[in-house]
Amino acid sequence: MTLVLSDPVKAFLAQPKPAVMATLAKDGRPVAVTTWFLLEDDGRILLNLDARRVRLAHLRRDPRFALDVLDFPDWGSHVALQLVVSALTDDADLADIDALATHYTGSRYPDRERPRVSVRGEITSVHGWGAYGG
Q1: N or C: which end of the chain has fewer CB within 10 A?
Q2: 10 forms bridges with which residues in the sheet?
């Protein structure tokens, strides 16, 4: 069940902000990588990964992950989300990566050859800092 977000947090997450995704490797060590994300109308978070990324293996083994969204240039304000994967699906027509690329760059994703996987996450916890709580 996705948490209900406050209007200020929803408005913040609707913007193309820098974000860091964290997964857990097989040995338990955290792995953090910058990523694009999109808040969907149903309250889930959409990510999209190259099908060969090791993060997909992490998520298939342990569906929990975190996303820290920064309010650039005010790095002191951020929203930290804890999530669980609700769906992993092939993005065969590249519609999801195009939606993310358009959100961040205004253009479709340029690499049309490499397979992609869409990750949808249900928000299980939210914590804001600075302008968004704390």
Answers
A1: N
A2: none
Q: Is the peptide bond before 73 cis (omega within 30 degrees of 0)?
A: yes
pTM of the model: 0.93
pLDDT of residue 2: 63
Q: Are 6 and 126 in contact (CB under 8 A)?
A: no
DSSP E strand stretches across the chain: 19-24, 30-35, 38-39, 45-50, 64-71, 74-90, 116-129
End-to-end Cα spacing for the chain: 23
- Mean pLDDT, rounded, of the chain: 94
- Per-residue pLDDT at 131: 75
Number of domains in the chain: 1
Token pair for residue 41? 């109308």
